[in-house]
Structure formats: structure tokens, C-alpha cells
TrEMBL record:
InterPro entries: DUF116 (IPR002829). It comes from Thermococcus argininiproducens. This is DUF116 domain-containing protein.
């Protein structure tokens, strides 16, 4: 059964889907795999937070990229105050992700080794009003945990799961990341972006 169908089935029995624990219990009631808990929780939260995320201008959205996406053996990035400083060498997808984000206007982009740096960034920049929404790339359990923590700070999160999780050389769907970054942008906004296509289609 697809995740959407599982969510629909849970909704049809009136299950409480507001917390990870409630989802885990509901899954066991319909004899579905409880390991789907985090995935379902994150998908539900992505939908629930989308409208709030849209209201935040891109300059006030943070992007958190996990360091496990780096090409560990060949990455020339140095580690700075706010995580790895990518040189866009092209040896992993992070360079492309950052380049696209910068074109759109994102100012807060972090390649983080873990939750402690995310916490440091949020602790500094949320009270100053510099960050009001977040886009995170991680494995399902980390995304679920981030959702719980950011809800407390009232920071709407859009989460993109890794296609291959692990500690090194993980994988992500770059197009899905770009789509998430562009949430809330109008067709006209997108048309203003510098394009790598020499013959872009006209915007209706
Ligand atoms: S694109 Fe950036 S993060 Fe990836 S290997 Fe190159 S410098 Fe490192």
C-alpha cells in the first residue's frame, strides 16, 4: 500500500495522527508496518506546514543540508562557524542545490554535521527574526525529530528525505529539493530566475 493510501486508511478510521506515538499505535491497529511511522508523520507535517512555509519569503527561510551528502574523499570544503563551506566543486549534489537556492534568493544555507549546529543556528537567528521557516534534508527519523522540535519554535518545516540514508555518500532527489525550495514562488518569480536553458519556454 502506498503511503498516501495508508494515510487515507488511517484517516478513514478516525485515527489520531498528531504525534509519532499516535501514528505508531494507529499503524499497529490496522496491521501496517510500524516502521512507516516517521515517514507518515513527516508527510502529514509537510502538508500541514506548507501554507505557513509559503508565507515566509525565501530570504527568511533556512536550508539545512546534511554533511553525509558530501563526497567525503574529494570534498575541498573547509569547516567554518556554521558548517561546511561548499566551493561548488561539482563532486556531490550539494553544489547544485546551493547554486539553485542562491539564485532563488535564499540567504541561510547550512551544510551541517548534525543537530547541534542546527540548534546553534536556530538559537542565534530565530530570536533575531532572521529565520522564520526551514527546509531540511535528512533521513526519515531525523526529519520527524526536527519536525517535533521546530513545531515548538513555530518554524514551519518542509522536509525532503534522503533516497539513500547512512553516514557517508548518501543520496537525495535534487529535483525534489528544488521543488521544495520553490514552494510559494509564482511562475513569474521563477521566470525571473537566471536560467541555464538558452531557450526557456515563455511564461503564459
Ligand atoms: S560540491 Fe561542495 S560539498 Fe560537494 S564535494 Fe564539492 S565542495 Fe564539497
Amino acid at each position: 500500500m502506498s503511503i498516501e493510501n495508508t494515510i487515507a486508511k488511517l484517516a478513514s478510521i478516525g485515527a489520531d495522527l498528531s504525534t509519532r506515538n499516535a501514528i505508531r499505535i494507529a499503524l499497529s491497529l490496522i496491521s501496517e508496518d510500524e516502521e512507516l511511522t516517521d515517514q507518515i508523520y513527516v508527510e502529514i507535517k509537510n502538508k500541514a506546514h506548507k501554507e505557513e512555509f509559503i508565507k515566509v519569503p525565501v530570504e527568511e527561510r533556512a536550508i539545512f543540508i546534511p554533511q553525509c551528502l558530501r563526497n567525503v574523499k574529494e570534498c575541498p570544503a573547509e569547516f567554518g562557524e556554521y558548517g561546511w563551506e561548499c566551493t561548488k566543486c561539482g563532486k556531490c549534489p550539494i553544489g547544485e542545490i546551493i547554486e539553485h537556492a542562491e539564485k532563488i534568493g535564499y540567504k541561510h544555507i547550512y551544510i551541517v554535521p548534525g543537530g547541534s549546529l542546527v540548534k546553534k543556528v536556530l538559537k542565534e537567528k530565530v530570536p533575531r527574526g532572521e529565520i522564520k521557516a526551514a527546509l531540511g534534508i535528512a533521513c526519515w527519523p531525523e526529519l520527524a525529530e526536527a519536525n517535533e522540535k521546530l513545531s515548538i519554535l513555530k518554524i514551519p518545516l518542509q522536509a525532503v528525505p534522503l533516497l539513500r540514508a547512512g553516514c557517508i555518500n548518501t543520496l537525495v532527489d535534487v529535483e525534489r529539493v528544488k521543488e521544495a525550495m520553490e514552494i510559494g514562488l509564482t511562475k513569474k518569480d521563477k521566470a525571473k530566475l537566471p536560467s541555464s536553458d538558452p531557450n526557456p519556454a515563455p511564461v503564459p
